[in-house]
């Protein structure tokens, strides 16, 4: 760790931290312990030697770049973003905005094939790049979730992975593009910092699902917040995946794991592209803490909920709200009110 320094955005503290990096080719029992530790400490870690083929990644990245390079009116043909499609600056349903444009997909193959018709002149090529990428990252997500169950000494090691293997799984895939914002203009005395400052591309939030697998091109911008007001920059590594614990995994581990708060800033000079797979349960899945993590010392923290209920709550709130607070068993009136702010 190095000394904290001021962040250009609202004087927040920035801290350089060596975030956990886990080599998946190491012995299994070692890997599962390291993953559990990373999920407890940060809800966030990087995996290398992950087994997702470079060709699968490159095809997806090329298709993504080709789409975002189109004109605005061509891209808007693939919109609106809700529930799935192209979105620009608007995030979600409640007025959140960011310097990002994106494509949102349901991970169902038929739905991807249908969407691809408005996205590409070669829809079959686009669709197969997306489906192959999703197939590969879903396998990796299941492998990580089985390692997590082993590390937690849960006898049923597919307790998490079967939720996203289920044909009804409500998983989501997202392609994000954060355009650079350097316009070759000189800074003026009235706006001395607009020349070379970062802007919020995707505001701070936690991911609602079980586990997110995120990768980006070689441009930084992702940050995590292990504590209120403290931000840790995440170095870019196009060869690796960054893994985020989502709200559902926090609830199912009874708060032993934390869903990581994160955000993405734009870069002044280089455009950033990221791709995120959000492994989610079926709508009717009932989500509750595993018996192994509920003890007299660690009593049940969250009421059981279905994914449909949680998703509905999520969509009624703002991007940065702490939705799990609404399901806290000891949730007081004050906590409920503060989670809405
Ligand atoms: C404001 C919102 C956008 C979001 C749904 C939400 O109501 C709150 C969570 C947001 C998020 C974050 C992770 C993923 O990018 C996403 C697709 C998801 O499932 O939850 C987005 C949602 C979105 O952009 O629609
Ligand atoms: O682009 C990124 O690195 C983060 C994107 C993100 O957090 C999201 O899509 O939920
Ligand atoms: Fe996210």
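Q: What amino acid sequence fits the structure above?
A:
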């Amino acid at each position: 760790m190095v000394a904290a320094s001021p962040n250009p955005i609202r004087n927040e503290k920035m801290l350089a931290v060596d975030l956990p990096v886990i080599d998946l080719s190491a012995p299994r029992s070692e890997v599962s312990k390291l993953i559990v530790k990373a999920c407890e400490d940060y809800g966030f870690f990087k995996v290398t030697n992950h087994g997702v083929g470079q060709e699968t990644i490159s095809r997806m990245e090329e298709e993504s770049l080709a789409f975002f390079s189109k004109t605005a009116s061509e891209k808007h043909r693939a919109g609106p973003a809700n529930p799935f499609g192209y979105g620009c600056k608007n995030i979600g349903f409640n007025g959140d905005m960011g310097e990002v444009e994106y494509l949102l997909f349901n991970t169902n193959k038929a739905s991807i094939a249908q969407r691809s018709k408005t996205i590409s002149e070669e829809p079959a090529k686009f669709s197969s790049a997306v489906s192959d990428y999703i197939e590969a990252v879903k396998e990796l997500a299941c492998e990580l979730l089985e390692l997590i169950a082993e590390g937690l000494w849960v006898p049923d090691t597919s307790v998490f992975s079967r939720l996203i293997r289920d044909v009804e799984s409500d998983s989501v895939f997202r392609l994000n593009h954060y355009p650079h914002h350097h316009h070759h203009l000189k800074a003026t005395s009235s706006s001395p910092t607009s020349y070379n400052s970062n802007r919020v591309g995707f505001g701070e939030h936690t991911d609602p699902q079980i586990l997110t697998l995120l990768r980006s091109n070689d441009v930084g911008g992702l940050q995590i917040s292990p504590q209120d007001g403290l931000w840790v920059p995440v170095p870019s590594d196009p060869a690796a995946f960054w893994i985020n614990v989502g709200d559902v995994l926090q609830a199912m581990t009874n708060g032993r794991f934390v869903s990581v708060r994160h955000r993405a800033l734009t870069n002044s000079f280089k455009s950033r592209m990221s791709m995120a797979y959000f492994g989610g349960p079926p709508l009717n899945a009932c989500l509750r803490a595993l018996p192994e993590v509920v003890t007299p010392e660690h009593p049940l923290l969250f009421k059981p909920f279905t994914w449909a209920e949680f998703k509905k709550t999520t969509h009624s709130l703002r991007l940065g709200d702490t939705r799990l607070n609404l399901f806290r068993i000891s949730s007081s009136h004050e906590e409920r009110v503060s989670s809405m702010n």
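Q: And what stands out in the fold?
A: The pocket of L4NPZUNZ (ligand 1) is lined by residues 91-94, 96, 104, 172, 174, 205, 207-208, 278, 314-315, 319 (CB under 6 Å).
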